[in-house]
Amino acid sequence: MTEPQRERVLSGTRPTGRLHLGHLHGALLNWVSLQQQYDCFFFVADWHALTSEYETSGVIAANVRELVADWLGAGLDPERATLFVQSKVKEHAELFLILGMITPLGWLERNPTYKEMQENLTAKDLSTFGFLGYPVLQASDILAYRAHHVPVGVDQLPHLEITREIARRFNFLFRNTFPEPQALLTKSSKVAGTDGRKMSKSYGNTLDLADTPDTLRAKVKTMFTDPQRKRRNDPGDPEVCPVYQLHRLYHPDAERVAEIGADCRAAKIGCVDCKKEMVEHLITGTEAVRERRAAALARPGYIEDVLDHGNLRARAIASHTLDAVRAAVGLPTEP
What we know:
The structure is a single chain. By secondary structure, the protein is mainly α. It has 2 domains: about 10-190 and about 300-330, HUPs (Rossmann fold, 3-Layer(aba) Sandwich); about 210-285, Tyrosyl-Transfer RNA Synthetase (Orthogonal Bundle), CATH 1.10.240.10. About 55% of the residues lie in helices and about 5% in strands. It has 15 helices and 5 strands. The chain has helices at about 20-35, 45-55, 60-75, 90-100, 105-110, 110-120, 130, 135-145, 155-175, 215-220, 240-250, 255-265, 270-285, 285-300, 300-330; strands at about 10-15, 40-45, 80-85, 150, 180-185. The strands form 2 sheets. It has a 3-stranded parallel sheet. Helix 4 packs across helix 8 (about 135-145) and helix 10 (about 215-220) packs antiparallel against helix 13 (about 270-285). The longest helix has 28 residues, at about 300-330. It is elongated, with a radius of gyration of 22 Å. The relative contact order is 0.14.
C-alpha cells in the first residue's frame, strides 16, 4: 500500500545574515516539528532579500550557505523537508510576472508592512517596484507549490491574506487552479535582544546560533536587565528582564527559575550572578544546534548537495504548476 500524500507546507527566510535565538524560537523549532507531519518546502528567499538589500547584494550569496547551516543546526532534515534557493527555481519569477498582471495596485499600497517599513527604514530607498510588489512575489512562492498551509504568526496574517486574494482572483478570472493556502498559526516565544528590544540583526542585539560559548558569555554579560534596578539592593521585576526570559527557556529546573524570580523581587540575587547562571544553561541548551551546524559546514560539498537536490525537486513541482497556469491563461505551454 502507498502512503497517503501529505499536505504541503511552505515557508522561507531571507539571507540577510546569521540567524539567532529569535529565529529559533519564532520559526525554526516549529518548522522542525512540521517536517514530521507535512510535505515541507523551506526556501532561501534571495530574491526577497533584493527588495530591500539591493545596494549590498554582494553579501547575499555568501549568506545562503550560512543560513542553510543554521537551518540544519536547528534540526531541519533534508530527508524529510525540501530545502532550496528561490532564485534557482525560475518559475517563481514567471508566476510573479503573470500574477502581477492581475493584482490591483491598491492591494499593494494598502499593505501595512509597506508603509511601516518605509517609515522605519529611512536610510534605505524603498520606493521601488520590487519593494511595492513583494507581496505578489510572496504569493508566487506559495502558489507555485499549491501549498495547503503557511506557518505564520498572528502579525503576518494580513500578508497571507493578500496571497489568498490573488489566488481567488486568478481562479475567478481564468480557471480554478490554486487552493487558498491556510495559516498554520505558530506558537512561538518572542525572544528579547541583549538591549531589551526585539532581537533583530538591524539592532545589533542578537544571540546567534553560530555564536561560540565564549561569545555568548561576552554578549550576555552586557545584557540589559530591569531598567528600574540600578543597584544591587534594589528589588527587581523579572517579568521585564530579558535574562529571566532566557532562564525560562533554557533552565532545566522550573523550581529554580521560580526561586530566581522571587530572589530578584526581594533583591537577594544580583544581575551579574543571575546572568552567569543563565548563560551556562543557554550554552548547554544550544549545544546540539552548534554541533549539527558545525558538522554540516565541515562536510565538503554537503550543503551544496542538499540545495542541488532541493532545487531539482522544487523546480519539478513548480514547473508542473506553471504548465497549468499557462493553460488557464491561454499562454503557450513548455514543449
